[in-house]
Design goal:
219 residues; Rossmann fold; 6-stranded parallel sheet; 10 helices; globular
Length: 219
């Protein structure tokens, strides 16, 4: 089995070592390097070229989001999963804009963290459930108030629903289950959305939702 190669960046040694031990105990994961500062995370990522960087936001020196932006600029194929104690939407949006593919809280269950690592490694977006629910609530408020009427570029009602769920962080099988349609139908709607919007992957769909104001940046 080919393992997910990971770099763990956190300035708290005990927390970092605990995360490293957890990840290394998984049969499909391997921690290549550790970093205690943003600068160290960037320099080590450039050398070891991991599949996933687990990035703390609040580190000395270069802030975690700046380090994320630097890593994605030079290694766009590397997936960055932000690990933080902050459940604020503004931090989430800043992380996504910096290039992160996921956002998980330090208070998360162990299985949530492992699922998040595997999710971003597959090229999907992972949003911690508490944060995702806040975003969905704001989204639904906008839909109900009609604020989104001019933001969808010709999408059908069902395509809007699919876009909503994808922006929330659901996988295609989850979208199919939520909407009570087949996986093939969900894939078709996803493909139609991407064609109409000129997008190419899930991350671009989430960023589209942010850019067009489908989800508020207000805290």
């Amino acid at each position: 089995m080919e393992k997910i190669r990971i770099l763990v960046a956190d300035d708290h040694t005990l927390i970092r070592r605990g995360i490293v031990g957890l990840l290394n105990s998984q049969p499909d994961m391997e921690v290549l390097e550790e970093a205690g500062t943003g600068e160290e995370a960037v320099s080590k990522a450039l050398v070891c070229k991991p599949d996933v960087v687990l990035m703390d936001i609040g580190m000395p020196g270069i802030y975690g989001l700046e380090a994320t932006r630097a890593i994605k600029k030079q290694l766009p194929e590397v997936q960055v999963l932000v690990l933080t104690m902050h459940d604020r939407e503004d931090y989430l949006f800043q992380a996504l804009r910096a290039g992160a593919s996921g956002y998980v809280l330090k208070g998360a269950d162990i299985q949530d963290l492992l699922a998040a690592v595997r999710c971003v490694h597959r090229g999907e977006v992972y949003l911690f459930p508490i944060v995702a629910k806040k975003l969905l609530a704001d989204y639904l408020r906008r839909v109900e108030s009609g604020e989104d009427a001019a933001t969808y570029d010709g999408l059908t009602n069902r395509e809007r629903e699919v876009l909503q769920l994808i922006a929330q962080g659901e996988t295609l099988p989850q979208v199919a289950e939520t909407l009570h349609v087949s996986l093939h139908t969900a894939q078709t709607h996803r493909d139609n959305i991407m064609t109409k919007l000129g997008l190419h992957n899930r991350i671009e769909l989430v960023k589209y939702a942010i850019k067009r104001g489908l989800i508020s940046l207000d805290t």
